[in-house]
C-alpha cells in the first residue's frame, strides 16, 4: 500500500520518527557515594531518588524523521548514545520522555545478535531466519545464498561446525549474512561492518545499497568514516546524547572530522 502511494505521488514515506526522545538507564545496586555517614544522610534526604539506583541519561531530546530508501549513518564519540538510540528504535528500550514511531518492523543487527554458540552455523542460519519471521521454505531457498555471502565455507566446511569454533570476524559475517537475507522495512546495523575483512566489508556495503533500493531504510552505526561515506547519504551526529548535526554525509563528516581532529 505504502509503496503504491510512493510511486503514485512521488511523496517521501517516513519510516521512523523520533520526537524529542529521551532514554534513561537505571542502574540498580550502584553505590551513589562512599559509605560515609554524610552520603547515607544525603540519600535519606533526597527523597525523590530511588535508593541504590543511578540514572544514566543516554539520549537527550533527539528528533528526526527517516524516510524509505534512505541509508543513515550514526556517528559520535564513545558513549554518545548511538547504540542506545538504535535499541530504542527497535523497541528494546522504553522512552523516558517523547516518543519514537516506526512504520514497519525494525530489525536490529548488532555484533551481539544472539546466535547459539553450541549449534552449527547451518542450524543458526535456520534459527536466525525463523526468528526474523522467514518461513522454512524461504530459508531453504536462500540458504545457499546466505552461506556463500558469508564466505564461511571458503576455507573448508565450517558451516557444519559449531559457532564457537568460528573467529569473531567469521561469526560477525554469518550474523550479517543471515540478517541481510531478508528484505527489511528498517534495518539497523551496529558496527557489523567493522569486524569483517576489507573484502567482506565491500560485499556488505553492496548489500546495504541493495537493501535501500528494495525500499527499506538502513541505519548504520560506525566509527569508520569511510564505511559511512561509502554507504550513507545522510548522517546523524550524536554527542553526549544530543543530536549535534543532521544532514548530508559530506557536510556532517566534515564538521565531525574537525571536531575529532582527523
Ligand atoms: N545497559 C546500560 N546501563 C546503563 N548505562 C548504559 C547502558 N548501556 C549504555 N549505557 C550508557 O549510556 C550512554 C550511551 O551509551 P551507548 O552505548 O549508547 O553509546 P555509543 O555511542 O553506542 O558508544 P560506542 O561508540 O562506545 O559504542 C553511555 O554513557 C553508557 O555508559
Automatic annotation (TrEMBL):
<protein>
    <submittedName>
        <fullName>ABC transporter ATP-binding protein</fullName>
    </submittedName>
</protein>
<dbReference type="GO" id="GO:0016887">
    <property type="term" value="F:ATP hydrolysis activity"/>
</dbReference>
<dbReference type="InterPro" id="IPR015860">
    <property type="entry name" value="ABC_transpr_TagH-like"/>
</dbReference>
<dbReference type="InterPro" id="IPR050683">
    <property type="entry name" value="Bact_Polysacc_Export_ATP-bd"/>
</dbReference>
<keyword id="KW-0813">Transport</keyword>
<dbReference type="GO" id="GO:0140359">
    <property type="term" value="F:ABC-type transporter activity"/>
</dbReference>
<feature type="domain" description="ABC transporter">
    <location>
        <begin position="39"/>
        <end position="260"/>
    </location>
</feature>
<dbReference type="GO" id="GO:0016020">
    <property type="term" value="C:membrane"/>
</dbReference>
<dbReference type="InterPro" id="IPR003439">
    <property type="entry name" value="ABC_transporter-like_ATP-bd"/>
</dbReference>
<keyword id="KW-0547">Nucleotide-binding</keyword>
<comment type="similarity">
    <text>Belongs to the ABC transporter superfamily.</text>
</comment>
<dbReference type="GO" id="GO:0005524">
    <property type="term" value="F:ATP binding"/>
</dbReference>
<keyword id="KW-0067">ATP-binding</keyword>
<dbReference type="Pfam" id="PF00005">
    <property type="entry name" value="ABC_tran"/>
</dbReference>
<dbReference type="InterPro" id="IPR017871">
    <property type="entry name" value="ABC_transporter-like_CS"/>
</dbReference>
<dbReference type="InterPro" id="IPR003593">
    <property type="entry name" value="AAA+_ATPase"/>
</dbReference>
<dbReference type="InterPro" id="IPR027417">
    <property type="entry name" value="P-loop_NTPase"/>
</dbReference>
Amino acid at each position: 500500500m505504502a509503496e503504491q502511494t510512493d510511486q503514485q505521488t512521488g511523496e517521501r514515506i517516513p519510516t521512523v520518527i523520533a520526537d524529542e526522545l529521551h532514554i534513561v538507564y537505571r542502574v540498580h545496586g550502584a553505590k551513589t557515594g562512599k559509605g560515609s555517614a554524610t552520603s547515607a544522610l544525603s540519600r535519606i534526604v533526597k527523597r525523590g531518588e530511588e535508593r541504590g539506583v543511578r540514572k544514566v541519561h543516554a539520549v537527550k531530546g533527539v528528533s528526526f524523521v527517516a524516510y524509505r530508501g534512505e541509508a543513515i549513518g550514526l556517528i559520535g564519540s564513545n558513549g554518545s548514545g548511538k547504540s542506545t538510540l538504535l535499541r530504542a528504535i527497535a523497541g528494546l528500550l522504553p522512552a523516558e520522555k517523547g516518543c519514537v514511531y516506526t512504520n514497519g518492523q525494525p530489525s536490529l543487527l548488532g555484533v551481539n545478535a544472539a546466535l547459539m554458540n553450541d549449534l552449527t552455523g547451518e542450524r543458526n542460519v535456520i534459527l536466525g531466519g525463523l526468528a526474523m519471521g522467514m518461513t522454512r521454505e524461504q530459508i531453504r531457498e536462500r540458504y545457499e545464498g546466505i552461506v556463500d555471502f558469508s564466505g564461511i565455507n571458503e576455507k573448508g566446511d565450517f558451516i557444519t561446525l559449531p559457532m564457537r569454533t568460528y573467529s569473531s570476524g567469521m561469526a560477525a559475517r554469518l550474523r550479517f549474512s543471515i540478517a541481510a537475507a531478508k528484505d527489511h522495512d528498517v534495518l539497523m546495523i551496529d558496527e557489523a561492518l567493522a569486524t569483517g575483512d576489507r573484502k567482506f566489508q565491500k560485499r556488505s556495503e553492496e548489500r546495504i545499497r541493495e537493501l535501500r533500493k528494495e525500499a527499506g531504510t538502513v541505519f548504520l552505526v560506525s566509527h569508520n568514516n569511510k564505511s559511512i561515506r561509502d554507504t550513507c547519504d545522510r548522517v546523524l551526529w550524536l554527542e553526549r546524547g544530543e543530536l549535534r548535526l543532521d544532514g548530508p554525509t559530506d557536510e556532517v563528516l566534515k564538521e565531525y572530522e574537525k571536531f575529532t581532529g582527523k
